């Protein structure tokens, strides 16, 4: 029986992919932007034509989420991305340096290493691929084990499509043999310019250890504050629709509710009517016992399950029309598992006396797991909204809109994305919704706007003051008694400047 070492195979494949990507990046840099624009359009056309099949295959292979909502995400991507990409350029001369203006050149950071999630694998891959191509980047994609077959088939079609257009054959790479050693090799390889990790926390040690710049998009431990002036029925409907979408798998979705105690009873009633089920203490404990492991991590077998199924697995029943399970918590306890990220339609519930105490509670929740991702406030008091905007350590503050839909740019004009950066520097250098600007660096161009002699005189008072010498030195030098190489050199320098023309 042959012995197969997957670690060694993964490392070997990773090295080959990285070298191929380096060569492809050099070739891609020389191609016109019109060709990569055509590639973006072709990828989106491919996703659009196969969206239903991709949604079905993803749910079948991962057992996460539901087909209808995954299809909606793919359709959103295909319709929204052309609106934000068409007519934009991120490669080459972006702004010429004329008339004293500072010019800019867009330079791709690639090759990119892209680590994909199991929760939103295809839509995340398609999104990152489009922004990478638009910005002129070659990419190597690392699939999660639960979606490897679906993604492998998808990228086979993508590669054939891109080669048909005339792009380099290794513009898109795919790591078929996935192992920790292979991921580490890709991250550390000299060819790698930037790492994008989208909701794959297990890979973060390799990402951080590589020393390479990285962007980490997580689910986010995102609180929502319902302030006493909020439109309570609308807030209830928004939160339920957002938290239950794709069984709680959208990045940026609500993780906990902080509610002003003045409206707690009224909001709880509206929330229950919208589809929330408030667990009693025994039910909440039963769910925590089965859904979290001994280290406090949410178990993979409970990811992306609906509220009815979660309750059934925990040993209690809820009505079929309930979409979100709610655990009431008196405070943020280190012993409570509900304060953590939950990859399913589950929410913690915290009442607070007023907006100031709610503000502190939200900060506590955000910082509990190196947060700083997103949060939502429902309020009609602009002064309170302003204070939250100033004080919250988040990458995005959403106002009166569903967290998940607002964060990905569906109900807001945030950049459409399924990789959401964090406001915490530990989670990468960009808090943005991933977009082409994150995948380039800007080379500055500058032309002269003033003569050197005039500039030196302006900063030194006069040209004579640039290299001051004593009267004795002047007399000695004039008499030929002292040689001053520095003064001679400076006089020669001024002579050159006097003949400059622009």
UniProtKB/TrEMBL annotation:
Gene3D superfamilies: Aldehyde Dehydrogenase, Chain A, domain 1 (3.40.605.10), Aldehyde Dehydrogenase, Chain A, domain 2 (3.40.309.10). It comes from the Bacteria. InterPro entries: Ald_DH/histidinol_DH, Ald_DH_C, Ald_DH_N, Aldehyde_DH_dom. GO terms for molecular function: oxidoreductase activity, acting on the aldehyde or oxo group of donors, NAD or NADP as acceptor. Residues 12-405 form the Aldehyde dehydrogenase domain. Keywords: Oxidoreductase. The keyword Transferase does not apply. This is Acyl-CoA reductase. It comes from Peptococcus niger.
């Amino acid at each position: 029986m042959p012995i197969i070492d997957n670690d060694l195979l993964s490392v070997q494949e990773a090295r080959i992919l990285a070298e191929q990507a380096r060569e492809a990046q050099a070739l891609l840099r020389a191609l016109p932007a019109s060709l990569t624009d055509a590639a973006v359009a072709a990828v989106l056309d491919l996703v659009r034509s196969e969206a239903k099949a991709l949604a079905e295959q993803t749910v079948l292979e991962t057992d996460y989420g539901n087909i209808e909502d995954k299809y909606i995400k793919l359709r959103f991507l295909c319709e929204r991305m052309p609106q934000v990409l068409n007519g934009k350029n991120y490669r080459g001369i972006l702004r010429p340096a004329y008339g004293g203006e500072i010019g800019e050149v867009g330079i791709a950071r690639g090759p990119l290493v892209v680590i994909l999630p199991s929760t939103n694998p295809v839509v995340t891959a398609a999104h990152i691929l489009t922004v990478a191509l638009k910005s002129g980047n070659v990419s190597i994609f690392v699939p999660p084990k639960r979606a490897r077959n679906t993604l492998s088939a998808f990228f086979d079609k993508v590669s054939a499509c891109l080669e048909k257009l005339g792009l380099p054959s290794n513009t898109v790479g795919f790591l078929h043999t996935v192992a920790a050693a292979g991921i580490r090799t890709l991250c550390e390889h000299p060819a790698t310019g930037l790492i994008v990790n989208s909701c794959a926390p297990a890979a973060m040690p390799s990402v951080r250890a590589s020393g390479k710049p990285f962007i980490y998009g997580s689910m986010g431990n995102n609180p929502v504050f319902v302030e006493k002036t909020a439109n309570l029925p609308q807030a209830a409907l928004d939160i339920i629709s957002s938290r239950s979408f794709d069984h709680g798998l959208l990045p940026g979705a609500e993780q906990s509710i902080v509610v002003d105690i003045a409206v707690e009873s009224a909001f709880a009633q509206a929330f229950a009517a919208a589809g929330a089920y408030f667990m009693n203490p025994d039910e909440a404990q039963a769910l925590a016992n089965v859904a979290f492991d001994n280290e406090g991590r949410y178990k993979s077998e409970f990811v992306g399950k609906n509220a009815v199924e979660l309750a059934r697995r925990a040993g209690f029943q809820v009505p079929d029309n309930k979409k979100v399970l709610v655990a009431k918590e008196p405070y943020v306890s280190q012993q409570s598992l509900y304060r953590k990220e939950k990859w399913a339609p589950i929410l913690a519930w915290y009442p607070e006396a007023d907006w100031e105490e709610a503000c502190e509670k939200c900060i506590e929740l955000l910082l509990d797991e190196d947060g700083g991702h997103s949060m939502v406030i429902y309020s009609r008091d602009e002064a309170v909204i302003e204070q939250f905007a100033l004080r919250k350590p988040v990458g995005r503050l959403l106002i009166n809109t569903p967290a998940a839909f607002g964060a990905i740019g569906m109900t807001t004009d945030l950049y459409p994305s399924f990789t959401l950066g964090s406001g915490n520097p530990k989670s990468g250098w960009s808090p943005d919704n991933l977009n082409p600007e994150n995948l380039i660096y800007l080379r500055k161009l500058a032309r002269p706007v003033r003569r050197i002699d005039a500039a030196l005189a302006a900063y030194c008072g006069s040209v004579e003051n640039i290299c001051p010498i004593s009267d004795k030195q002047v007399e000695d030098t004039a008499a030929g008694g002292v040689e001053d190489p520095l003064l001679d050199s400076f006089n020669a320098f001024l002579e050159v400047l006097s003949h400059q023309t622009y």
